[in-house]
Amino acid sequence: xxxxxxxxxxxxxxxxxxxxxxxxxxxxxxxxxxxxxxxxxxxxxxxxxxxxxxxxxxxxxxxxxxxxxxxxxxxxxxxxxxxxxxxxxxxxxxxxxxxxxxxxxxxxxxxxxxxxxxxxxxxxxxxxxxxxxxxxxxxxxxxxxxxxxxxxxxxxxxxxxxxxxxxxxxxxxxxxxxxxxxxxxxxxxxxxxxxxxxxxxxxxxxxxxxxxxxxxxxxxxxxxx
Length: 225
Fold this sequence. Notes:
Blueprint: E1 6-15, E2 18-28, E3 33-37, H1 44-51, E4 59-64, E5 67-68, H2 77-82, E6 84-87, H3 99-109, H4 115-128, H5 144-156, E7 162-166, H6 174-189, E8 193-197, H7 201-206, E9 210-215, E10 218-222
Parallel strand pairs: 3-8, 3-9, 6-7, 7-8
Antiparallel strand pairs: 1-2, 1-4, 4-5, 9-10
Helix pairs in contact: 4-5, 5-6
């Protein structure tokens, strides 16, 4: 039996005492690529936030990467996030330091001490995202697509079981968006699960995979866009 990376059962998710999502049932398996679609305001980011511990699960059952979301304490959230990779639409890079220093900052913050191992791991993830010659660059010297690749490299540093991608192509042109999605599919082949929220139906048509739709505060499985 394959153990899910994510499992929510009858979960209700609130923001500031307002019920946003209700009766959410979700199962994500290892090495699965799943799209999350829905209109603006349907709750895609809210669901992502619940999965990475930014919103706490008050009702129902939930687990991700071995963490129980019902019993998750605030002090445990950083440990949960070491098991996840999180990629946002707006990159969220530190603009005052190089690509290498951006990645080193994350490794240091998550307990890496050996300079040799830090260097080796940064070289590995930069090679994985096709930026092995760009470590010395500052983020503002890179294109939008390259900045998103750095953000993906950052998300991969601690070898996550699942990558949560919230509109990762939202600020990119179509050709660059296709390159980023192809990279995410490669990451699934390497062993991680990818759960990606998107508005971009053209991407789904070009890179078909399982689709979940948020509508009326609930999840519905779809076979087509």
